[in-house]
Amino acid sequence: MLRRTLQSFKGVAASGFTVTPTPLINHSEIGLLKKSLPTLYGGDFASKQYPDEWHYRPGFSKEDVTREVCNAWKSSPTIASLVLSPHIAEYVAKFMGWRSIRVGQDDVIQKPRSEVSNVGWHRDYSYINSNFVGGDGCTVWISLDRATEENGGVKYAVGSQEWPMEPLRDGVDSAFMSGASDPLAYLRRYAPEDIEIACPEVDPGHAIIHQSKVFHGSSNNGSADNMREAIVVHFVEGDCQWKETESSLPWGDAGYIYGRYRRAGEVELAEDHFPITWSENEAEITGWVKDYIGNGMGMK
């Protein structure tokens, strides 16, 4: 199954993204994940560990904006069973042609029906992969519902991974989480020619795999459904490292998000935060992952 599916991905690099032809997780696993989200957002963390970012708290936060928890794998063994899954990691590593693979970050997303739930155009590279040498990774956007343009599915600027790079300001130089009178205004700063936008439809359990330098965003959820949910995993190659820095500060030149994970004077990525979830050499796989999630979710 894995080899046949991977073979069907050949030749998709031009667009910067592709939809998996078969689901990565089954309906039972989708049900477990969806059931865990209210508990996660409610602050009941089964692992007793806080996530790294927690953007939405019931009774406190606005109800009509897109909700996000980052690195929820640290807080929820259920989410971790997907994010740290060796089966999905192997699938993605072989797709990318990597001999090993690390988790860079996860994002748990809930998008309510709302007129202000859009996510602006951005590149994952700017706030994740730009911190690393050999970190030109990929993102796996796994849908827990059917995602369409109507309910705010992901939109892509086709081929934009080949456009000039914007100044690196940790991703803040974008329309992220904000609206604009011209929805393509930000893209026009970098587009060398006419802009083609695509919004692939994604069935539950399927995923979009996209390159870290492709521009993407999403519109509001204008459907009759109350919520659209997805879990996103940003992967980097197993042997990537922090960029060298002349700074004596513990965070070096890393941005405001990733500076918290860097250790002074070191270029190696700490497996506490960036676990290796699959490798051709099994001895390189982070040892505590199996203790935490068992066999993990995903295509076996």
UniProtKB/TrEMBL annotation:
<dbReference type="Pfam" id="PF05721">
    <property type="entry name" value="PhyH"/>
</dbReference>
<dbReference type="InterPro" id="IPR008775">
    <property type="entry name" value="Phytyl_CoA_dOase-like"/>
</dbReference>
<protein>
    <recommendedName>
        <fullName>Phytanoyl-CoA dioxygenase</fullName>
    </recommendedName>
</protein>
